[in-house]
Amino acid sequence: MYKKYTYHSDSGTKSLITALKLLNSKKVIIPTYTCADILSAVKLSNCEYYIVDCGFDLQIDIRDVIKNSSNYDTIIIPHMFGIRADVESIRKNTNLKIIEDLSQCHGLNGLCKYSDIVISSTNKSKWLDKNGGGFIFTDNKIDHELPVNFSKYKNIIKEKLVRRIELANEIKESGVNLIGEESAWLRGM
Predict the structure, then answer these.
(1) By CB atoms within 10 Å of each CB, which of 15, 56, 59, 167 scores lowest?
(2) CA pair distance 7, 13, nearest whole angstrom
(3) pLDDT per residue over 104-113, tens digit each?
(4) What does the DSSP 8-state code read for residue 75?
């Protein structure tokens, strides 16, 4: 669905550790506002890290990333609260390897287009809640368990999108302004 191959993992953290190893990452940029497990995965992978602030849209600050990109080799980009992060600008303006984290935003058009590897947690409260586990999406075969068929989740993702759009429209109709208008409906609950 997102990349050519999909692999299951024991957790989102393990998916991220695998992605960092596959990319031979040593110095990693992460956003200040994200799940603590992202920092844990970077530390467990023995990588140095730089924490970039977030903007008012709660996404990683692109200007700070670009300014510091020459000192690092990899970036982890989550789409916090389902608001689309600007992965394209990072791809076009840096030489960073990009790990995109979909734990909070499956289903948006254009996801994973500019990333090298994609991961997702399926722990409780995540977009795909399997009460544990995770996924690795890549265009290359990797030495990991056998690839899995992710297409069975397409209907679940579509159903969640439709329902969240309905809920977000109710919020908008009540006069509430949403941050990240293009994808803020993902947060509508």
Answers:
(1) 56
(2) 14
(3) 887 777 788 9
(4) E
CA distance 140 to 157: 24
87 forms beta bridges with none
What is the Cα–Cα distance from 43 to 114, expressed in whole angstroms?
25
Q: CA-to-CA distance for 32 and 64, rounded, in angstroms?
A: 12
Closest CA to 19 of 79, 77, 84: 77
Are the C-beta atoms of 65 and 72 separated by less than 8 Å? no
Q: Exposed/middle/buried for 12, CB within 10 Å: 0-12, 13-18, 19+?
A: buried
**For residues 21 and 138, is the Cβ–Cβ distance under 8 A?**
no
Question: To which H or E segment does residue 132 belong?
Answer: none
| SS3 state of residue 97 | strand
Report pLDDT digits (tens) over 146-165: 566 777 777 777 777 777 77
| CA 11 – CA 13 distance, rounded (Å) | 5
Whether pTM > 0.70 for this model: the answer is yes
Angle at 161 between CA 159 and CA 165, to 5 degrees: 120
Phi, psi (deg, nearest 5) at residue 70: -70, -15
